[in-house]
Amino acid sequence: MRVLLLGSGGREHVLAWKIAQSPLLTKLFVAPGNTGISDLAECVPLSLSNLDGLVEFALKESIDLTVVGPEAPLVEGVWDRFHAAGLKVFGPSRDAAELEGSKAFSKDMMHKYSIPTAHYEVFSNVNEAKHYAVEAEMPVVIKADGLAAGKGVVICKSSQEAVETLGRMMSEGAFGDAGKKVIIEEMLEGEELSVLALTDGDSVIPLASSQDHKRVYDYDRGPNTGGMGAYSPCPQISREKLQEIVDLSVKPMIRGMAAEGKPYRGLLYAGIMLTEKGPYVLEYNCRFGDPEAQAVIPRLKSDLIPVMLEIAEGKLKTKTLEWHDKASVAVVLASGGYPGAFEKGRLITGLEALKGAADVHVFHAGTELNAQGKVVTAGGRVLAVVGLGDTLREAQDKAYQAVSKIQFEGMHYRRDIGRRALEVLK
Ligand SMILES: Nc1ncnc2c1ncn2[C@@H]1O[C@H](COP(=O)(O)OP(=O)(O)OP(=O)(O)O)[C@@H](O)[C@H]1O
Ligand SMILES: [Mg+2]
Questions:
Q1: CATH, range 2-93
Q2: Whose CA is nearest to atom 2 of ligand 1?
Q3: What is the CATH code of the structural domain delimited by 327-425?
């Protein structure tokens, strides 16, 4: 089986690592890939916005299966282009990826199919939005409609903050076209949970539970990021409870998308908040979470290729997945300044010492080789360090021991990944 994986982040590194272990694999290409991935696969310098180039490459290399990591090419219609060329793709079509590509579409779908979600209004006119915000009870949550790399959501505590945020998004173009339309919604409170499920548009296989840590600082302080760490499984969620949440959040959406003539195939990610009134859906994503994937996939025992291929062919035959009986903790190491402006090109030390360490994985996100062939920082989120253990505590210890070996100037990370779950276990 010849596989092409699209993407260049930590999520794609863990996917490449998993796919590379499959006995079915004969060749793995990753476009464009990254420094860590180049140890496992052949990286191809093709941009993900060059859909024609990607199709041409896949045809030339007789690719049997293409796996799409990030949301942008899916929302752009990579599935549709590959499909039209007779190529098999794991991931949703452009119409189905709209569940992530447009938060207004996603909220309207939740409303239509009675999926519990925060009350909301959609605005395309900045004056109407501001007028609504001034009258609304605070706090409110303002969300850019389109893709904003995890930074398009602002929780506003005062009308003034809301009006300013709306001005930045809708008039000043802080998120380009993605912020021309916004959602203003009620703020919910509770514990968050990421529910990931594989689906062929009909059957659904949930993955193990995980929890992301969106805020940049310990104790969930500071601005939102793309995700500063994750752990899996969530001990506060029993298997029965997870199934209940899947039945409430994933299944009705899969049925709804099929009913709308936009069958959803691939991985559906439901961001859940466990409120006092029960689980509410915050959002859907059309791909694996980053860093949830780095926490969840190392725990997966089953081969991913057969199930991805079945979904790409439109019919899931696999019924369940097998998991290692271990917990995991993934800690993201970020560049100084992230999620704001940050510098690149900082030398990273300590990576060699961790190669081959038991129950430790280091997945690359924002790294590159400098002119001397040394690994340096090249992005906001630089690495995800994963520890596995018989207990969550052991996994956490493993991860932070490994983190202590790695250094680069300006490096920062959260020291409390998994803390909430450990408190629950107590
Ligand atoms: N209604 C809400 N009430 C409280 N907090 C919220 C609400 N909506 C979103 N949030 C917070 O903002 C975060 C980001 O929101 P959301 O998941 O909708 O945005 P996103 O930019 O698509 O994120 P991602 O990068 O995970 O796809 C959530 O994880 C949650 O912490
Ligand atoms: Mg999202």
A1: 3.40.50.20
A2: 187
A3: 3.90.600.10
